[in-house]
Design brief:
There is one protein chain. This protein is an alpha/beta fold. The protein has two domains: 20-117, Elongation Factor Tu (Ef-tu), domain 3; 130-258, Nucleotide-binding domain of ferredoxin-NADP reductase (FNR) module (Rossmann fold). Helix content is 18%, strand content 31%. The chain has helices at 96-104, 141-150, 178-184, 213-220, 235-246; strands at residues 20-31, 34-41, 56-61, 69-74, 85-90, 110-117, 130-136, 162-169, 190-196, 207-208, 227-232, 255-258. The strands form two sheets. It has a six-stranded antiparallel sheet. The longest helix has 12 residues, at 235-246. The protein is globular and about 50 Å long.
Length: 262
């Protein structure tokens, strides 16, 4: 796939070809095992390219293993944040690059990346006006980007009329990008529903348990004709969401998935 804007005219779009040097200016410790890396172009000291919320960058690591290693990470920042770009990484068992990033990257580090790439985005020309997002853990990051981008233009041309996010975390200690999501919870046109799989916190307005059929049905409240689904997280969760949607008449083109497991 090219790095061109796939949903809009490209005449005035900034595109930086080839590998970029990105300077890390700040590291935000989201949770005990998750970090967000804030970056600017090392040569231009700003964000030097345009992208669509939900797209990713491909990074190259030359000095981590015996040979160069390439990994892709979705941007958790949004295009409306014009001065920087960010991605969020969660440690995983035996995760070579994710753990290396959390252990070694600090303000002043240089990362090599190219892009942006990807079609896991809201497409105003083809998607329905209610964007329903299903996520677990670090799979929330593309939706943080998308919700940040559209929250101030809900109902206007190029944006959905409504956004709903149903996201699962293990506990209140694992709430990735919570400052942004908490601010969105009661924003007109936006709804953020959080369920915790390993903690009871109903008094704090959290559900309990993994995402299931009942949670999906309650969140959608029968409005299947006007919804485009997007899902990112474990395969079992994405399969559940797809089965739930298609069994209620949602067309395949209105269910998009992005896997972080590969």
């Amino acid at each position: 796939m090219t790095t061109e804007n796939i949903f809009a005219p490209t005449a005035d779009r900034r595109v930086k070809r080839g590998w970029m040097n990105l300077l890390v200016t700040r590291v935000i410790h989201e949770t005990p095992d998750t970090d967000t890396f804030i970056m600017v172009d090392a040569e231009e000291n700003k964000r030097a390219f345009d992208y669509i919320a939900g797209q990713y960058l491909t990074f190259r690591f030359d000095n981590v293993g015996d040979k160069p290693i390439v990994r892709s990470y979705t941007m958790s920042s949004s295009p409306c944040q014009a001065d920087h770009v960010a991605f969020t990484v969660k440690r995983v068992d035996h995760g070579l690059i994710s753990n290396w990033l959390c252990d070694n990257v600090r303000a002043g580090s240089i990362l090599r990346a190219r892009g942006p790439i990807g079609r896991f985005c809201y497409d105003p020309a083809h998607d329905k006006k209610h964007l329903f997002m299903i996520a677990a853990g670090s799979g929330v990051t593309p939706f943080v980007s998308i919700m940040r981008e559209h929250v101030n233009t809900i109902g206007k041309k190029g944006s959905p009329d409504k956004m709903t996010l149903l996201v699962s975390y293990r506990s209140t200690k694992d709430l990735i990008c919570w400052e942004d999501l908490n601010a969105l919870r009661n924003t007109p046109g936006c709804r953020v529903i959080v369920t915790l799989s390993r903690e009871h916190a109903e008094k704090e307005d959290f559900l309990h348990g993994r995402i299931n059929e009942s949670m999906l049905a309650d969140a959608i409240a029968g409005d299947y004709a006007n919804i485009t689904f997007m899902s990112c997280g474990p395969q079992a969760m994405m399969d559940l969401g797809r089965t739930h949607a298609t069994s209620r008449g949602v067309a395949p083109e209105h269910f998009k998935t992005e896997s972080f497991e590969s």
